[in-house]
Design a protein that fits this description.
The chain has 299 residues and is mostly beta strands. It folds into 2 domains: 8-205, Immunoglobulin-like; 209-295, Sandwich (Immunoglobulin-like). The protein is 3% helix and 54% strand. It is built from 1 helix and 21 strands. The protein has one helix spanning 12-21; strands spanning 8-11, 34-47, 50-64, 72-74, 82-89, 100-102, 107-116, 119-129, 132-134, 138-147, 157-170, 183-189, 196-203, 205-208, 214-222, 225-231, 239-246, 252-256, 260-263, 271-280, 292-295. The strands form 5 sheets. An 8-stranded antiparallel β-barrel has the order 2-3-5-10-8-7-11-12. It has a 4-stranded antiparallel beta sheet with strand order 18-17-20-21, with no helix packed on it. Strands 15-16-19 form a 3-stranded antiparallel beta sheet, with no helix packed on it. Keywords: Carbohydrate metabolism, Glycosidase, Hydrolase, Polysaccharide degradation, Signal. This is Fibronectin type III domain protein.
Length: 299
C-alpha cells in the first residue's frame, strides 16, 4: 500500500530565513524567480518553400524557483516554464531573394515531454517572433519568446523537461511591410540527441505566500513605453505593493503601490517579457506572475 504524501507547510518568510541561515540565499529580497537552462537541438525540417532543410535551435528555458532551492516547485501548486528560441540558421528554411523582415505575426510551437515519477505527460509552448530585419539568415540569430502552459505536479521527485518537435509559421515582409506570403516548416530531431532542457524538483512543501498577480495586460504602448495593469489579491497581511520585472530577474524596474505601471525609455521595435511580484507589508513575496510578452511599435 502506497504511503500517503503529506506536504510540509511553511510561510515564505520562514523559508527564506531558513535558506539564508543555511547559506542558500543572500537575503530576503531575492525574488521567487527562475533559473536559465538551455539545450541545443539540430532539427530536420520539411518546408512549404521547397525541399527538406537542417536547422540549429537553442531552446532556452526559465525553470521555476518556487520551492526550496534552485529549479524547484511545491507539489500540487501550479508553476510556469518560460522558454525562448534562438534560431541561428534559418537560411535553409527561409529562402531569401532579398532582405526581409519578420514580425510578431510569425509564430512557432514547440512540443515537450515532462518525465517524472508519475509517468510522462506532453505539453506545448507557443511563441511569437521578435522583430528582425534579415539580409542574410546564415548565422543570424532570430529569436522568439513563449511559455508552456501552467504545470501542476503532485508526486515529489525530479521531472525532466525534454523538448520535442518544432513547427514554424513564418510571414516575411518587405521593408515597407508588404507581405511575401506564408512559409511553414515542420521540424523533428533525432531521438538520440540530447533533448533535456532541465529538471524540475517537485517537493512535499507548501510555501505560503501572497497569491501571485494575475491577468497581466498591456493597456497601451508607444515606440518607447508601455503601460501594464494586473489583478492583485488579498491575503493574511496587507499588500504593500508590487515589484515589476522586465526581461528576466535582473530587469527589476521598480516598486509600485498600485496594480498599474508605465515603463519608459524602452527601445522601439523590440520584444519584451514582463512579470510582477506581490509584496506584503512584512516583505513576504509571492511567486512571479505568468510572463506577458509584448512588442513595442516601430518609431
Amino acid at each position: 500500500m502506497r504511503k500517503k504524501w503529506t506536504p510540509f507547510r511553511i510561510t515564505a518568510l520562514s523559508l527564506v530565513s531558513a535558506l539564508a541561515a543555511a547559506g542558500a540565499l543572500t537575503g530576503a529580497a531575492s525574488p521567487a524567480s527562475a533559473d536559465t537552462s538551455a539545450v541545443r537541438v539540430e532539427y530536420t525540417c520539411t518546408t512549404s518553400a521547397g525541399p527538406g532543410a537542417q536547422m540549429t535551435v537553442w531552446v532556452v528555458g526559465g525553470l521555476p524557483n518556487d520551492g526550496a532551492g534552485s529549479n524547484s516547485a511545491p507539489g500540487n501548486q501550479y508553476f510556469y516554464i518560460d522558454v525562448d528560441l534562438d534560431m541561428r540558421e534559418l537560411r535553409p528554411v527561409l529562402t531569401l531573394a532579398e532582405g526581409v523582415r519578420l514580425d510578431g505575426d510569425s509564430t512557432a510551437r514547440l512540443g515537450a515531454r515532462i518525465v517524472g515519477p508519475d509517468g510522462t505527460r506532453t505539453t506545448e509552448a507557443a511563441f511569437t517572433f521578435a522583430p528582425k530585419w534579415l539580409q542574410t539568415t546564415q548565422g543570424t540569430a532570430v529569436r522568439a519568446a513563449g511559455a508552456f502552459p501552467a504545470q501542476v505536479l503532485s508526486v515529489p521527485g525530479g521531472y525532466d523537461v525534454r523538448v520535442d518537435d518544432l513547427a514554424l509559421t513564418l510571414r516575411p515582409k518587405r521593408a515597407d511591410g508588404t507581405p511575401l506570403g506564408t512559409i511553414t516548416a515542420s521540424c523533428t530531431h533525432d531521438p538520440a540527441q540530447n533533448d533535456l532542457l532541465g529538471t524540475v524538483l517537485v517537493q512535499g512543501l507548501i510555501a505560503e505566500r501572497p497569491p501571485r498577480p494575475d491577468g497581466l495586460t498591456v493597456v497601451s504602448t508607444t515606440p518607447t513605453s508601455v503601460t501594464l495593469t494586473w489583478q492583485g489579491y488579498p491575503w493574511w497581511n496587507k499588500i504593500g505593493g508590487y515589484d515589476v520585472y522586465l526581461d528576466g530577474d535582473g530587469g527589476h524596474t521598480g516598486f509600485v503601490t498600485e496594480n498599474q505601471v508605465t515603463l519608459t525609455g524602452l527601445t522601439p521595435d523590440t520584444q519584451h517579457r514582463a512579470k510582477v511580484v506581490t509584496v506584503d507589508v512584512q516583505g513576504i513575496r509571492s511567486k512571479m506572475s505568468k510572463g506577458l510578452i509584448f512588442t513595442l511599435p516601430r518609431a
